[in-house]
Input
Amino acid sequence: MKTTGIFYGSATGTTEKIARRIGELLGVSREDILNVASTAPSKAGDYQLLILGTSTWGNGNLEDDWYDFLAGLEAMDLRGKKIAIFGCGDETMRDSFCSGVGELYDRLVNTGAEFIAPYDTIGYTFDHSAAKPGDSLEAYGLLLDEVNHPELTETRLRGWTDLVSRQS
Output
């Protein structure tokens, strides 16, 4: 069994770019960075750590390619696996910033997997996100805004991947 698989859905290429950068920082082979649009959910069974990445669209929806893949993951027993989540969004969507991260968490929380690497939202201003429980300063994973705050991305990526390394 391989250690880490990165699974992403990306309509514009931003989330794919971030997935590849995460792979570089964690030393994950390019063959283990997978687009959910062309990958069977059963592939997740090959890995101990699943890193899942999505963008957020509309009123807080996942990137479209995630829905079939996610349904397959929900049906799996993921006990013994760890999941870390990242997401790309636009903080001007003040009521749904990176909410796709929250949807991934909510739909997979009952699979038996252990979620790791919650991360702060410092630097972003928004009213609500399904990616962040209540008044917590931490989201379920890494949130990024390449539209309005690309200057924060590299520091946040390095901090989060360090956390993922320590917790995996």
User: Anything to note?
Assistant: The mean pLDDT is 94. The chain is about 30% helix and 25% strand.
